Amino acid sequence: MTKDDFATLTIGNKNYTITLDKNINIMSGMQYEISVVYNNNAVIVEFTGDINPWGEEDERFDDVVPDDIKEKLSEWIPIHTGVNPPIVEGAYYIEPFVTVHCEDEGNGGYEPGDLISPLTIKFSNQNTYNNTVDYNEESENDMQGEGKGAFISGSGNDFTAFFNVEGSSSGIYTKTALVISGTKSSTGIKDLYYAFIMVKKGNDPDNELMKEGVFRVFKDKDGLSVNTTWTMSKSVNIKMDGENYFSVFKSVN
Q1: Phi then psi for 73, rounded to 5 degrees?
Q2: Residue 99, CB-side half-sphere exposure with 13 Å CA sphere
Q3: Which long-range contacts (CB under 8 A, 24 or more apart) does 143-148 make?
Q4: Rounded distance, CA 192 to CA 182, Å?
């Protein structure tokens, strides 16, 4: 290689020297994504730009979801990695919202297939440089929460967002670690999964809410959480149609 060569691509026993048609400014401590494509004896280099500081991605991820819980969660919810997530800003309505798995099933948790109160979520202030996004949620069963500056990963249309959320359910303070995964589309979010760990809760003498330290996983049953309008503190009556709707935090004991 000469000083003007960028890299060498080896395919089989043949080497291809890669040069760039423009300079790249690579700063210390930054992560970059460069795609190399081989096509008809030609090598094409696509430079997508700087992404996130090295180390910050893992630090933020582990701060929200500890490794041991992350490993257990991955059995029930897809975790989309990558540094080029889609733009997810907007509000989305999750209904029918159904239970996938409760770590505390049989001990206060729901059974797979149990319906949960529909949920409206909102992503805002997405920062494509730091891969952060703000979050709000409101249930039609007296649950509210807000997450700030959360980390979002993914590539293409697939994403996973990680939040520390503070809010309330039935007037009881809650602090949760929240994970939301899905595929962004023009009509909403496809195949949305929603998982959380109850990190801390306020005074709950009657054990209305789930216990601290366990996780639950839910999803949009029909596969599409549609675009909607965010109207915080709205009052909505739900037609039950013979079904029971639970709050995601509540205990069924």
Answers
A1: -60, -40
A2: 23
A3: 143/117, 143/119, 143/167, 143/168, 143/169, 143/247, 143/248, 143/249, 144/168, 144/233, 145/174, 145/176, 145/178, 147/178
A4: 4
Note the pLDDT tens digit of each residue in 182-237. 999 999 999 999 998 888 899 999 888 888 888 999 999 999 999 999 875 543 33
Contacts of 90 by beta carbon, 8 Å cutoff, 6+ apart: 122, 123, 227
Q: What sections of 40-113 are H helices per DSSP? A: 56-64, 67-73
Is the separation of the CB atoms in 250 and 210 below 8 Å?
A: yes
Instruction: Please tell me whether the overall predicted TM-score, pTM, comes out greater than 0.85 for this model.
Output: no
Residue 16, strand partner residues: 9
> Are the C-beta atoms of 118 and 93 separated by less than 8 Å?
yes
Structural tokens at position 247: 């709050």
CA angle 30–21–81, rounded 5-degree value: 35
Other C-beta atoms closer than 10 Å to the C-beta of 92 total: 24
Calpha distance 58→31 (Å, rounded): 13
Convert the pLDDT of each residue in 27-55 to its tens digit: 544 455 566 666 665 555 554 444 444 33
* Rounded CA separation 41/74 (Å): 40
Most confident of 23-27, 166-170, 204-208: 204-208
Name the residue among 51, 58, 57 with its Cα closest to residue 27: 51
